[in-house]
Amino acid sequence: MDDVFATAVARPHVIAELLGTFATIALLLAAVGTYGVLAYSIAQRAREIGIRIALGASAQNVLRMVLRQGLGLAVVGLVVGLLGAAMLGRLTGTLLFGVHPMDVTTYAAVSAFMLLIAGVASFVPARRATRMDPLEALRSD
User: Fold this and answer.
1) Are 101 and 92 in contact (CB under 8 A)?
2) Contact 37, 74 (CB under 8 A)
3) What are the pLDDT digits (tens) for 115-134?
4) Which of 32, 46, 78, 87 is such that its CA lies 20 to 30 A from the CA of 103?
């Protein structure tokens, strides 16, 4: 009887493991992509940041502005992603074992992770740009 049971659950178990593996890879790709896009867009604004600092803006104000804009984009992306995940969750609900398709804990954890990535992706290049000499930023390009 144990062999019959093991055979009956083997395929759904493999499908669930594959789905979990692909979901983890997708999360990592989304994190790398989010970091890359935000870091690149902020690095492209180094000249603007230099001008703002040269005109008297404090580094903290510029850093706050860049973080607000970067996290604003991330929140919009999260809302769209969560809506898409909620709609597609019904389709994949049959592949989930012991987890509800609308698992709030999973959605919250992934959202917090992506917001953390967006925060780091906004903070690191913005901090680098605010430490740059304004004259150097104006001479670039």
Assistant:
1) yes
2) no
3) 999 888 888 888 887 887 77
4) 32
Burial of 101: CB neighbours in 10 Å, binned 0-12, 13-18, 19+: middle
Residue entry with tokens 């970067």: 70
Amino acid at 78: L
> CA angle, 117 as apex, 53 and 75 as ends, to 5°?
85
Give 88-101 pLDDT, tens digit per residue: 877 776 666 666 77
State pTM to two decimals: 0.73
Contact (Cβ atoms closer than 8 angstroms) between residue 130 and residue 62: yes
Structure tokens given for 90: 């019904």
In this structure, what are the phi and psi dihedrals at residue 102, rounded to the nearest 5 degrees?
A: -105, 45
- Cα 96–chain centre separation: 24
Alpha helix ranges (H) inside the chain:
2-43, 46-54, 59-92, 104-131, 134-139
Low-confidence ranges of the chain (pLDDT < 50): none
